[in-house]
Write a structure and sequence with these properties.
With 37 residues, the chain is an all-alpha fold. It has two helices and no strands.
């Protein structure tokens, strides 16, 4: 993802929605949480 490309942009190019991208992540993928700056 990153600061340059939003999840919505990726979703548009993948013919889906951002929610589907995030909920499709399995347990094998490590999640890194950052607190707001």
């Amino acid at each position: 993802w990153g600061p340059q490309v939003s999840a919505n942009t990726i979703a548009r190019h993948s013919d889906t929605i951002a929610y589907e991208l995030f909920t499709g992540v399995t347990r094998r993928v490590p999640r890194l949480y950052q607190s707001p700056a």
